Amino acid sequence: MICLVQARLLGFAPSESGNVSHGESMNRAEERLRKQVKKIGQQIEEKQQKLRVAQQKLKKQERKQRTRELIQLGGLADIAGFRGIDTGAVLGAFLQAMELLKDEATYKNLKHLGDSTLASRAGRRRDRSKQSDTVKEG
């Protein structure tokens, strides 16, 4: 139970000159403290709910990013001609490629090859797009 001095210090009880009896002031001080505790408890629950919602949003964004990366990786595997190849053989090729990529010179060579292939494909797409735009205009 809270003492009167503590209640007064916290601003919950009237001063000694007040007309309220000691028991009444203590009851009011206790009630105020209980209300404060309840309010703080509700605030904590609200913050915890906001935290849960934020965590769910983050997980959803992470899943979307992972899905995007996997789709891109599948597209690259398709460009490289892996479509229709046995999945075990594809995985073996990927594992071997990861070993090759540990060597910096090999990494740079393979990156250059891949970047060149992607740039070439993008250029061909632009050219086809320009040609189709010209046909539409004519």
Kindly describe this structure.
The chain is an all-alpha fold and 138 residues long. It has a domain at 4-83. The protein has four helices and no strands. The protein has helices at residues 4-9, 22-79, 87-100, 104-137. The protein is elongated. The mean pLDDT is 87.
Could you tell me the radius of gyration in angstroms? Answer: 35 Å
Q: What's the multimeric state?
A: single chain
Question: Helix count?
Answer: 4
First-last Cα distance: 91 Å
Summing up helix and strand content along with how strands pair, one would put the structural category as mainly alpha
Q: What is the 3D form? A: elongated
- Spans with pLDDT under 50 lasting ≥5 residues? none
Helical amount = over 70%
